[in-house]
Amino acid sequence: MIILVGSKKGGVGKSTIATNIASILISRSNEVVLVDADRQSTSSNWADDRENTSNPQLVCIQKYENIKKTLQDLNNKYEYVVVDCHGGDAVELRSGLLVADILIVPCQPSQPDIDTIPMMLDIVERVIEINENLQICCVITRASTNPNVTELSDTRIALKRYKNLRLLDSVLYERKVYRDAISIGYGVVEMDNGKAKDEVLAMIEEILNG
Description:
It is built from 8 helices and 7 strands.
């Protein structure tokens, strides 16, 4: 299974999602590979740091430009291929979508982020003519934990207007533990924060099981 994390906008938490998915899956299966297709190398750095921990290890490779053939080859060798894709309308994103099973689109609860969703769906619509089985999921990231802030509910309303986009019920909130974990090669499931653990576990269950 190829799970690709991509967005038209940078800074939405793609690497956070990709590394946390990888850390969950590697605890369940030895056949997991993380593909860093973003030249910022956040996921690669995370994997390097992980080698210095006692956590389950996984393979991480860097691949840029056209990643289609690489993903196909890896999908024949591994049960799960998790792709941290370059932000924006890049060749890595378009080529990866041609063979991905699931696309995860992170979206922060802000109007600039919401405004990129139609552009992302336009890219997907062109690709889906070739990859008819592609599933498109959207997860809200970095939501405020303040119950008085209405951005989360407003964002849900806005995103539900897009019929071809499956908005996940699970939400990743703004928590320091996400930044702490990615800086030391951990997933939040391996950290001491129950709320963050519940968030990412709920997300992966929705992604895999619908």
